[in-house]
Design goal:
Elements lengths: L1 E4 L2 H12 L7 E5 L6 H11 L14 E4 L6 E5 L6 H6 L2 H6 L3 E5 L12 E8 L6 E6 L5
Parallel strand pairs: 2-5, 2-6, 4-5
Antiparallel strand pairs: 1-7, 3-4, 6-7
Helix pairs in contact: 1-2
Amino acid sequence: MDYITHSAAETEALGERLARTLRPGTVVAFSGDLGAGKTAFTRGLARGLGCRERVTSPTFTVVNEYLGGRVPLFHFDLYRLGSADELWDIGWEDYLARGGVCAVEWSERAEDALEEPLVRVALRLGGSPDERVISIIGAEVL
């Protein structure tokens, strides 16, 4: 289903609503250009999972862990990875086994590693600078 947001706050709110429907072990696979709102959406996921920590992009660390909510959130940024093999090298399998939600930015860089249950979130720039068109497949947003 497609959603249109008009601000970062609305994008976060949509992520929060989606988080309320996610089960432990779910992978959220993001796609979208730089600046499309993937990290803003993930801030909302964290809030919806009950995480109160400050959520930032893990561009240089590859993964940030947020453990304070009802379900842990593991936030990956695969922008700098060359292949899915590198994801396995940093312990992808261990993160999947820990029963949290794995939010994966630039998921297309490791498509072979993604497992069910899988929710796909595609973010695109809209008609105005703050507008985003967000497609969500694999889950219903409450």
